[in-house]
Design goal:
- The mean pLDDT is 95.
- This protein has 104 residues and is an all-beta fold.
- The strands form 3 sheets. The protein has a 6-stranded antiparallel β-sheet, with no helix packed on it. The chain has a two-stranded antiparallel ribbon with strand order 4-5.
- It has a domain of 71 residues: SH3 type barrels (Roll), CATH 2.30.30.
Length: 104
Amino acid sequence: MRKIQTDDEVVVIAGRDRGKRGAVTRIVSADRVLVSGINLVKKHMKPNPMTNETGGIKDIEAPIAVSNIALFNPEDDRADRVGIRVEDGKRVRFFKRTGTLVDE
């Protein structure tokens, strides 16, 4: 079980987008994720008439390191660390600051 999963609300804790919030859209690798609206980069695109795409400079989301994001805790309204413990034979995620379960 990963500490950060798809559709989790996260806060950027380091980098140029520090303080911004977004949802994890995709896990790229063990240490990189895509977050909606975070780490936008400019990409020069050629037009593709086969798929009816126009060319130009477009903003796309680039992967961000997992170490630079933290799960958003709605109880505290700020970022919080996540731990994993076993309850009733199942692994569950919990917030380190409050001890409450993430998936409630």
